[in-house]
Every structure is written in structure tokens, then in C-alpha cells.
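Technical annex B. To support the medicinal chemistry partners, we prepared a structural model of the target in complex with zinc ion, based solely on the information shown next.
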Amino acid sequence: MTKPASLLPTPEDLQVLSRQLGRPVRDVVEIGARCVCGNPLVATTSPRLGNGIPFPTTYYLTHPIITAAVSRLEANGVMVEMSQRLTIDHDLAARYQRAHESYLAARRAVGERAGVGPVAEIDGVSAGGMPTRVKCLHVLVGHSLAAGPGVNPLGDEAIGLISPWWSADRCYCDGAWDVAGPVPAADLSRHTKTQGLPPAELERKRAGRRPQAQED
Ligand SMILES: [Zn+2]
């Protein structure tokens, strides 16, 4: 698979990602999706981090406006409603299953392009609750933004639901993150990658770090 030039992270992309997240970004293989202005929305992340830890959340949502909007959906019970629908809507369940398989295939390809090879520890495990539940909408939205419409039905739905706060046809970057101070260089938190982790693990990780709006 060839890698379109627009996917390759530039040094400026990496700086923007670090500002968006408030910490130095690492293990970014590609830019999974961009704002109409060109800024990154999604950091396509290696399935094995530089420290050797397997990392299932390939499409990590980074844009603060989108992450905040998706957090609003989560707070409004959208995940519970979607998970319930998956148990009764067989067509939706089938499409979500295909999204899961697509995610795994895409992650394998990213791993190959990143040169990390197969990651046996997360073999068959996607992210966000796929294929039968919805446990992290940030994961599904990141997937939909990277894969384009028609791949992840619930990610597509969530993107529609955040339209009061963000839509793909407009730039929402102005003022969305600090551009005045230095680019974050020091990782002040011991655990920083959170999207798609089970709640218990999240709690454990939260205990050892500063607060971060995204997962609240
Ligand atoms: Zn923008």
C-alpha cells in the first residue's frame, strides 16, 4: 500500500498535535484526517508504541473541539442507546461487525507501514467496544474521520450528532488550543493514552496524572 503524501506527518503537524493534546505526541505514523485548513484531526498511531506497549487505538482523535463535542454525547447517554440498538438491529450489528474487521485490517496495514510487524497481544481486539458494544465514542469518531463515511455506522452517526459544534466543512481551529506558549516538551503525566481503555483501567491511570477534559 502506498502512502499518500498528505498522510505523512510533517514536523509542524507533530507540533500541532502536541499542542492539541497538551503533551508531546509520540508514535504517530500518519495523519488520519485533517481539518479543511490542513490541521490534524486524528493521529494515526502505531499499534506498538516505542516503549514496546501494544496500542489498540489506531485512530486517536486529537482536535479539542471534536473531542469535547464527543464527550458531550457520551455524557448524554448516547453510548448506552447505541449499544442497546446493536442488540436488536441486526443490520446495524452486521455493519458494526464489518467496521470492526475493517479497523483490524487498517491497523495491520498501519503496523506494516510503521515497520512494527504483527502485534499478537491485540490480535482480534479492535477498540471503542467494537464489535458488539460502544465503549468510547472518541474511538469510533476517529475511525470514521480516518476511514471516511460508510465504514463505521456508529462513528458516522456520532459525527452527525456533533454537528451543532463541529462539521467537516468548516475550520474550528482558531482558539481551540494554545498557540502562544512553547510546544509541550515534557510529559507531565505518567499515563497519557486513554481513548478506548476500559473504565477500570482509565480510573487507574487517572489516579496518576493531571486532569484531562477529554475523558471527563
Ligand atoms: Zn482548521
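Notes passed to the chemistry partners:
The chain has seven helices and three strands.
The pocket of zinc ion is lined by residues 35, 37, 39, 171, 173 (CB under 6 Å).
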